[in-house]
Amino acid sequence: MEPTKFVLGDEHIPQSWYNIVPDLPFALEPPLDPATREPVGPEAFAPIFPRAIIEQEVSAEPRVPIPEEVRKIYGLWRPTPLFRARRLERLLDTPARIYYKYEGVSPTGSHKPNTAVPQAYYNREEGVRRLTTETGAGQWGSSLAFACRQMGLECTVYMVRVSYDQKPYRRIMMQTYGADVHASPTDLTQAGRRILEEHPDSPGSLGIAISEAVEDAVGSEDAKYSLGSVLNHVLLHQTVIGQEAIEQMELAGEYPDVVVGCAGGGSNFGGIAFPFLRENLLNGRDTRFIAVEPASCPTLTKGRFTYDFGDTAGTTPLMKMYTLGHSFVPAGIHAGGLRYHGDSPILSALVHEGLVEARAYLQNETFEAGVAFARAEGIVPAPEVNHAIKAVMDLALEAREAGEGRVILFNMCGHGHFDLSAYERYLAGELVDLQLSQEEIDRALEGLPI
Ligand SMILES: *Cc1c(COP(=O)(O)O)cnc(C)c1O
Question: Would the CB of 267 count as within 6 Å of ligand 1?
């Protein structure tokens, strides 16, 4: 029988996370204080993050050991399986060999618990009692709610209004784990009230919800804030994905020519890509890397590489990244996890330096790809993943044109079981394609702080 599934035993759960920063062929630009424009030291993050997380955020060590308690919880679902998508290959009649790493087997159905668990762990170790956070589609909120429950912490989640309304099941899941969930913007914080005064019907955005969650944490004694993407320590934690994938590709007797992932804040992409990118940087491999985003929130493909706030209210340090402007409110597309104005500083710099390519696709073409994938392979993908799948299918068709048997690996970073209303609308022909005009992008960029 031709193997389609490549699995590893518990002993292959990685012992350490891989920090790409010291291996980069360029220096990252530091976060800046918005008032003085001077680089901020790690202490600027002390009101919102525990010491261990701040150390990881600025770490120059290539390997960070994974605490044993975190590895034990990882063992509930890790190592995750790697599949060869033989039926999709047949459907596309392509000589390309397509592999995917499936993170949907985690308790919450995505890659997010890979960082939620260590973040909750380090906070508990330092005496924190409650974590606050934002969530878009609810993937991050449910993952942090799960991790907080494992570590005995309370959890408060500010959920982007449009997703709160569209995706009640994720809210119920968070509440099942015991979290407090609010539709953002709320009237519980200054940041939320300010938005509601101007836009009472605001659909919310990740940027707004971040402002609310940060304000809540900073204003409480025993609470800290937790971010599910973008920052260096989050991408660090996600590298368990790529490290396992390297071993599993070896089991399959292959090495990827191309690695593809969808990019919202860049964490699942960095998680699968960085361990392979290390092989390019240190060991002479020449794999291509492609990050895929929505045409309605085209941060990497049409944003500007500059300093901007991480949140809408302008309370975070300035970060050098691709951004559409912190006041940009993305359209209410169904890939909630990809609706963020900025992107990881590491991923942004890699795109800027030409080490990672970026592509953008429209909503309907990504769902078309996702439905084809579901019919071929059986797994209904999260709408975010459909962006990666669309790019993979294009690459496979290019391979057919060129008559090349290239090896494509992508990160199937979550299932779509909580996103079926989006599929319902797609199947009914009701999804709209929104592409930003240059004019709208220019307008959004006007509010940049620098
Ligand atoms: C959150 C999420 C994303 C976007 O976040 P990244 O940090 O870019 O990975 C993508 N896919 C799924 C399934 C998510 O839950």
Answer: yes
